Amino acid sequence: MQADPQSPVRRIVADLRDDIATGRLPPAAKLPSVRDLADRYGVSRSTASKALILLKTEGLVDTRHGSGAYVREPYPIRRLGPDRYARNRWQDTTVEAYKNEHDGSAGTRQQGHQTQEVSLVEADEHVTATLGLQPSTMVYERARVMTRDGVPTHTMTSYYRVEDVEGSPLIDPSPGIASPGGGFRVLTDRGLAPHEITEDLNARMPTADETLLLELPPGEPVVEVRRTTRTAEGRVVEYARGVHAASRFVWSYTFAIPD
Questions:
Q1: Residue 235, class by beta-carbon neighbours within 10 Å (0-12 exposed, 13-18 middle, 19+ buried)?
Q2: Parallel, antiparallel, or unpaired for β 94-98 and 107-122?
Q3: Helix (H/G/I), strand (E/B), else coil: 216
C-alpha cells in the first residue's frame, strides 16, 4: 500500500474541513475532542491539537475554554454595490443580508446602527491631498463603528473641511445616522450634494485593534475601502476610510464595458 503523502496534521485538517463543507459537521456542531482525534488517527494529542489550531486559524472553528472546538456559525453576508448610495436610501438603516454570497440564498433583514466620535484633527498627507487643502489644515474627523443586529461589521472614518460641516448634524457625536436623512442629506442641504464617488478597495490582515473592535476570528482578513465623494462640479466634500470584516461582505458591481 502506498503511503499517504499527507502529514497526520494535514490529514486531520482535510477530513474535518470536508465534514464542515458538506454539512456532516453543521454550524455550531462540536468537533471531536483532541483525545478522540488522537485515538482515531493514531497520533499524539499534540498532533491532534495542532489540527484544531489550524482550523481555527482558517476561521472554520471557534474554541471555548474547557469545552472544546465548535464549527463557526456563518454571519449573514451583505452585498455592497452602487445602489447603497442611492438618494432614496440615505435614511434607511436596515440592510438585506444573505446566508452566503450566491444569488438565491435566503435573505434576512438586519437593523443597522452606529456609534461615532467627532473631533478636529490635523489632516494627514492623504486627506490634505484629496480635499485640496494646505498642509497642517484642521479638518473634522467623524469616526464610526457600524453594527448589524448588535454585531460589529465595519468601521468608517470620514474627513470634511471645517467650513463645509461646521454647525451641522455631521459634527454631532450622538449615536446613529446624522439627522433623519444621513450624512449625504446633510451635505445636500448645505448645497454640497454628492454626485460622484470613487472607491478603492484592498484586502489585508487586520491590526490588533481592528481584530478586537470588529470581534474577528483568528485568520480573518479585512477589506479596506477608501471613498472620495464629489459634487457635480467636482468639489471633494468627503474623504473616508472604512475597514470591513471580509467574511461579512461581498462587493458587487454591474457596469458597461468602456471602449
A1: middle
A2: antiparallel
A3: coil
Query: Under DSSP, is residue 257 helix (H, G, I), strand (E, B) or coil?
Result: coil
Range with the lowest mean pLDDT among 6-10, 24-28, 171-175?
A: 6-10
Measuring CA to CA, which residue among 60, 57, 79 is closest to residue 70? Answer: 60
pTM of the model: 0.80
Structure confidence by residue, pLDDT tens digits, 192-213: 999 999 999 999 999 999 999 9
The better pLDDT of the pair 1, 97 is held by: 97
Angle at 218 between CA 213 and CA 222, to 5 degrees: 55
Instruction: Report the sign of the C-alpha dihedral through residues 8, 9, 14, 15, in that order.
Output: positive
- For the CA atoms of 152, 237, 190, 147, the dihedral, rounded to the nearest 10 degrees, stands at 0
- Chain-centroid distance of CA 93 in Å reads 17
